[in-house]
Target: Oligopeptide transport ATP-binding protein oppD
Amino acid sequence: MTESATKHETILTVKDLTTSFKINNKFYKAISDIDMKIKRDEILAIVGESGCGKSTLVNSIMGLQDPSETKITGEIDFEGQDLTKISEADYNKIRGAKIGMIFQDPLSALNPLKRIEDQIEEVLICHTDMSKQERRARVLELLDQVGIVDPKRTAHQFPHQLSGGMRQRIVIAIAIACKPDFIIADEPTTALDVTIQAQILDLLKDIQKENHSSIILITHDLGVVAETADYVHVMYAGKIVEKGNVDQVFNNPQHPYTRSLLKSIPQVDSESDELYVIEGSVPSLQNMPATGDAFAPRIPWILASDHEENPSMHKLGHGHEVRCTCYQDFYFKEESDT
Ligand SMILES: Nc1ncnc2c1ncn2[C@@H]1O[C@H](COP(=O)(O)OP(=O)(O)OP(=O)(O)O)[C@@H](O)[C@H]1O
Model:
């Protein structure tokens, strides 16, 4: 852990963040009103269905969007530095060194033409002053840390010679090579089969504990959240609609979207074979309502007057927050028939 991290209990603070994309010469908001904090030693999961803005949020934090096509307003304070104001050169010093990234598809994250050891060493060359010998030793240490059984052999191999699970372990080794305080994992297990998924999630949790780092974990899988995270932010149509710890969000969900998401998970002990389906879909950027609750069209049986015109976050105590007053009046449609 770096000295700056020990001084700042909070690693990252995002304030009133909005990211808009240029489509046909007009900017449309993909995410807005984003306020969040992540503290040292925490795993924060961001969850929501496809198109909710999860990747846009983390790509904005990492400065990965094309500035000519993207407009970002608000603050992203990382260890005392506002990332929305720094140059690309300064971002390059942070990415890989202080913030590690793990992407969904390990195959496209790795260079097919380079040996594993060279790919891991590259990040050490960029961000440390280690000697060649020290770097080679660190590569083997990292491969061992991420659970590669024969580090020496794997170090000399190319990505195509490895299984999907092993490739994701290599991507994780690259992300943690410089012991970053903060790791962003964007759907890290989506491309893997179920047993390997569990191993990779266990590995992430072990790394977080060992390195005392903070992790933002992006996923659409609530099972992954329950298994791995300490805190959860639920996103819908570019906004955080509910935040809290895992217990609050899973055992006392409030926002209609969170409740619908949880209801749509298959239950092993359920008597019914039918899965709950959230009718409708996330609005596209061009169809995002300027005011009102973006989830309202998907729960049309709830009165318009139960929604706020400009839905704001409501504090429910102990860090649990929910957007819009409609949570107070929400019920599932079939509950009205019983
Ligand atoms: N570069 C871009 N230009 C225009 N629209 C974009 C761009 N990137 C994302 N979007 C749009 O922004 C919205 C949010 O997309 P985003 O990829 O952040 O969602 P997501 O929740 O990460 O979805 P997924 O789980 O499918 O990755 C979507 O409507 C998407 O089409």
